[in-house]
Design brief:
- With about 400 residues, the protein is α/β, with parallel strands linked by helices.
- Helix content is about 40%, strand content about 15%.
- Strand 7, helix 8 and strand 8 form a beta-alpha-beta unit.
- Helix 2 crosses helix 6, helix 5 packs across helix 8 and helix 7 crosses helix 9.
- The termini are far apart.
- The structure holds FE3-S4 cluster.
- FE3-S4 cluster binds next to helix 13.
Length: about 400
């Protein structure tokens, strides 16, 4: 790889062991993927925030980075953690877990990372611009900024995104280069317009095309629907970029006339929905994967207004602290039905052993609750799920 003088000095350890370690990782990734050089980034978004997902090994890694004195060079935000910072007892989280989680947060803070802890930082705390090179982990968020904003990031892992944040640079390969952002298949869609249908659509397409780049025709999603699609495509498959005709910024930049065409309709979604459901009887229903936007908070509150909650099933609404603070009247209504939790989510919190059957309106959560959290899953539209607790 061609490194400039300063990059080479960092690699040689002239600026300290921490930045050297970060450069070694970025250069190693660049060599694996055929990068010729590094590219400056404007922001990073880091995963590896929950004690549940990184454990003591991850905590030690972060402690070592802090001991070596590293700081992030660009705006860097953090993914959801394993608990609400003030309401963790409502989530049945143990004191041991809470203590470890607080340590992790403090370490990221010391490195200069904004510990806002949301998987939708693109709605507030970290908003890239079209054409920006960024290094984002969190598969749903990176897919959103690639696709809806036209920023450029690869599907980073936690350590790679942190290394890039420390350097303010990443290896220039993959989706950082326009030539690799071409669609690989056209997807013609005939579905209704609910968020759940968009989540199912993403689930179906992710399962079908793995890590391809779909070019959608026949849909007109808004931000919330794109967020749902991005999340499910990145979990049933490994899709990091998609185009939507007349919506995404780069949709006109590529010739799609010779691509294969897949048709997706209601029957495909229904088959996926059946596949994702393996219980009719839940103990917990969780909304907010990815985190609820202000618009979704208003919509849920309006669905619940004036209704009475049935006893028995626990309900979690997950969002960011800033969105929770901005929606006090919605929160008041939602708290009649459950806990409005900030900066955490059902997948990265330690629910195993507390619950074994969980409901969600997100196909991403549907996939991960069974694969990562030992849950039987009910995956339904938001209105159907809310009906169960009224
Ligand atoms: Fe966000 Fe957790 Fe879902 S991090 S995308 S709410 S699994």
């Amino acid at each position: 790889m061609d490194l400039n003088k300063e990059e080479q000095q960092i690699l040689d350890g002239e600026f300290g062991e921490g930045t050297q370690q970060a450069m070694e990782l970025i250069v190693a990734l660049g060599k694996i993927y055929g990068a010729k050089n590094l590219v400056d980034i404007t922001s990073a978004h880091l995963s590896g925030a929950s004690y549940k997902t990184i454990g003591d090994g991850g905590l030690l890694y972060l402690k070592n980075m802090v001991r070596k004195g590293v700081k992030v060079k660009v705006t860097s935000t953090l993914n959801p953690i394993g608990m609400d910072r003030t309401r963790w007892t409502k989530m049945h989280v143990s004191e041991h877990f809470a203590k470890k989680q607080a340590e992790i947060l403090e370490l990221y803070n010391t490195m200069g990372v904004k510990t806002t802890c949301s998987c939708i930082p693109y709605t507030g705390t970290n908003i890239p611009k079209f054409g920006d090179h960024v290094a984002w982990a969190e598969s749903s968020a990176l897919s959103f900024v690639n696709s809806y904003i036209g920023a450029r990031t690869n599907r980073e892992g936690g350590p790679g995104a942190l290394a890039a944040a420390i350097l303010g640079k990443t290896a220039n390969y993959g989706l950082h280069q326009k030539k690799n952002r071409c669609p690989t298949v056209v997807v013609d869609v005939d579905i209704a317009n609910s968020i759940f249908e968009y989540s199912l659509l993403g689930h179906v397409v992710g399962s079908m095309i793995g890590n391809g780049i779909p070019y959608y025709r026949g849909i007109t999603p808004g931000i919330e629907e794109v967020k749902a699609m991005a999340a499910s495509m990145a979990s049933s498959g490994a899709i990091a970029l998609f185009h939507i005709e007349n919506i995404t910024p780069e949709h006109k930049d590529f010739d799609t006339s010779n691509l294969d065409v897949i048709n997706i309709g209601k029957k495909d979604l229904e088959a996926a929905r059946e596949d994702l459901n393996d219980t009719n009887d839940v103990q917990l229903i969780a909304f907010g994967c990815p985190h609820l936007t202000e618009k979704e908070m208003h919509e849920i509150a309006s669905l619940l207004k004036g209704k009475k909650k049935k006893a028995g099933i626990e309900v979690w609404f997950c969002t960011s602290s800033s969105i929770r603070t901005k929606c006090p009247s919605d929160v008041k209504i939602m708290e009649e039905f459950g806990h409005v939790l900030a900066d955490t989510c059902v997948v990265v919190s330690p629910i195993e052993g507390v619950f074994s059957r969980t409901g969600t309106n997100s196909c991403k959560a549907g996939n991960y609750l069974s694969a990562l959290c030992s849950q039987k899953v009910m995956c339904r539209d938001i209105v159907d799920l809310l009906r169960i607790v009224q």
